[in-house]
Amino acid sequence: MKQNRRTFIRQSSLLASAGLIAYPFSSFSTSMKNPTVGEIMDLFITHIPDAPFPGTVDTLKSGSKNQVVTGIVTTMFATITVIRKAIELKANFIIVHEPTFYNHADETEWLEKDPVYQFKRKLLDEHEIAVWRNHDYIHSLAIDGVQAGVVKELDWEKYYKQSSVLTLPDTTLGDLISHIKTKMNVPALRYVGELSQKVSKILLLPGAIGGRRQIDLLMQEKPDVLICGESPEWETPEYVRNANEMGEKLGLIVIGHAASEEGGSAFMAEWIRENLSDVPVFHVPSGNSLAVE
Asked: In CATH, what number is assigned to the domain containing residue 82?
C-alpha cells in the first residue's frame, strides 16, 4: 500500500493518457484455458510495477498453485459463510483482500489447537479451496484497484481525477453520510463534525493507512472532510475533534474497514472478467463482522 501512495498520482497520469483508467491492463486480456491458481496469480502480478515484492503478505493461505481453477470468488474476508458460498458455486479459488487467520501475516502456529481455526482449515482443505490474499499488489496497480472500486461503488466516477482527492458538488456532511450509507449498504457509521456543515473537497482513504499518514494528508490537502475505513480513536478522530474545537470546519467519516474496501474486491472480480473471460467469477461481499444495534 505504501508503494502505491508514493507513486499513485504520477503513474495515474500516465495511464490516463494511455486510456487505461477504468480497468488497468485490460489490454492484456487472455482466453487462458483451464488456468491454475498460480497462473492466475502470476497474470495479475506480472503487471504490477516492481513485482514480485519481497516479504509481501500476498501469499496462498490454503490450497496449491497447481490446482486447476473451477471458479473464483472475490471478497474482503474468507469467512466461513463466504467459503460455504464458494462451495455452493463450485468455485475452488477465493481471492481475499484481508487476512484469513486473524493476523496480518496469517501466522497459524499459535492457532493450531484452536477449534475455530481447525474448523475453518478443515473446511478449506476438505473442499480443496485455495485462498490467495491480494492486498499489496492490488493497491500497487498504477490506478489503485481498491480506490477505483470504491469510487465506482459510490458513483463518483465523474469526479474522480485518479487521486485521493475528489471535488463534489456542494453538499452537507449529513447528506454525504446518507449517500455513503445508501451506496455502500452500511446501516450506520461514525463521524466527527457538524451534520449541517458544507462539504465539497473530499479526501478518500479507504481502509486503514495509519493515523499519522491520514493526518499528514489532512494537513497537505486541507479537505472539507476525510472519508476513511478506520483509525485509532486517539489519532485521526482526536485530531479532527480538536480542529473543530478551535473553530475549523473539518469533517471525518469512518465507514468501517470492511465496507470501505469491499469495492476493491468487486474491482478484482471485474478485472478477472476483463482478463480471463473463460473463468467463472463471483463477487461475494463478506459483510461487517461487527453488528450495529
From this structure: 3.40.1390.30
